[in-house]
Amino acid sequence: MFGFLKKKLKEGIEKISNKLKETEEKKIEEVVEELKEELPEEEVKEIEAEKEEIIEEIKEEIKEIGMPKVEEEVFEGKKPEKKAKKKPKKSIVEKIKKKVVEKKISEDDIKEIVSDLEMSLIQSDVAVEVAEKITEDLKKNLVGKSIKRGKLEETIKKSFRNSIEEILDVETFDLVKRIKAKKPFLIVFVGFNGSGKTTTIARIGNLLKKNKISSVFAAADCFRAASIEQIEEHGKKLGINVIKHKYGADPAAVVFDAVKHAKSKGIDVVLADTAGRSHANVNLMEELKKIIRVNKPDLKILVLDSLTGNDIYDQCKLFNDAIDVDAMILTKTDVYEKGGAALAAAHTINKPILYMGVGQGYDDLEKFDKEKIIKTLLE
Length: 379
Known about the structure:
- By secondary structure, the chain is of the alpha/beta class.
- It has three domains: about 30-105, no CATH class; about 105-170, no CATH class; about 175-370, 3-Layer(aba) Sandwich (Rossmann fold), CATH 3.40.50.
- The protein is about 55% helix and about 10% strand.
- It contains 16 helices and ten strands.
- The protein has an eight-stranded mixed β-sheet with strand order 5-4-6-3-7-8-9-10, sandwiched between helices.
- The radius of gyration is 30 Å and the shape is elongated.
């Protein structure tokens, strides 16, 4: 996951850095002549009198901070003998050094490249709002600032890091710890058709079992053909019971019965499957609201297919507006190279991503790690 987005961010960093390095580096002597127009008359006279010594001193001082090599012809022949430093000259040296090793960036320097970067982010499935935030932050951090020429890439990377950190800076929680707060603990899983809800429920059941937490599945998808059989098959493989009704039954009643069963048997958690639905399924959306209203789940988890791309923005909005989801799980991230879906999902509804599906097995559920994601994108 994130290969395509990482590539686009890297290209953006290189393009901006190269653009800012295109202008030929000014030689120290040229800077001295420029600066003479800005300095008081007595300092200009000092430069005229001791020009070679000043240039040599500046050359020595800036070696440690990444000054590009200054060609010997700048000094017009013989290297001057080094003399004792004079305190009054120090301010002049600092002024010249600052002009040589720093670049003040204008909006024109990066305007075209930033626009290209924004388009690249959108192509990586980053939502338009998120892409705009990243590029606007970058402009704020660069335009009008004087940046050491050797620090350009570092400054751009830092801007990207800060932007992505802000996007992913959502208060999260440990699912296993949260579950222990109540018994039975009801989690309802929602999402579009084909997002991977049933498989995700099985993986969560497997995760809980490994943590010695008992669970039962509620087959509340009474709409899709073979949906009950699918969750039953997972239940058999994992040794987890399934509470079900007939197809066409009231899903809210299925969840209600599963909770009742869990109470009577001392089971810790109820994991409720629901039918996949989209904005066009008005009846199904109303049915989902009823499931939530009747059963008052402790957590509502939105399962999102990362391959959905830019549509993930609409999916997040649809379900969050309808039932106010508590958290998200991204599926199929192992075959998803673009990576922008995670940023889009987190930013759109400001809810935490708990896990990512990273394979086909029950153990292929990876905890979402913000720092790991940022490192992967920018390293």
